[in-house]
Design brief:
Elements: H1 3-31, E1 37-38, E2 42-43, H2 44-66, H3 73-99
Antiparallel strand pairs: 1-2
Helix pairs in contact: 1-2, 1-3, 2-3
Amino acid sequence: MGWLVRALLGPVIWSAMFTAVYALHGLGCALGWPGRSMPLTGDLQRFALLALWIAGIVVHLVQIRLTTAPAGVTGGIVRAGGWIGLVSTLFTLMPIVVTSTCRLVP
């Protein structure tokens, strides 16, 4: 696997997580998950979103740990790509996971 592919893994995982979290949010709203009670998280919607978000963070951490980086500038780019994906997942998806609500339109 080339260094450029390894450098892009972090942002690609972030984009997949972004799509999955927003798709799950829409699905949960359509299926009425906020009305189903769950221990610890309050409702099924928040539980599902939180579980997916945490799974994505774990995938990022595994990717950072297992991706080998060549020496020099390209190695720094590979490592930066992994960290950029992780930080993006943490900060761009946290608001939808933590504060998500479904708006019911009559």
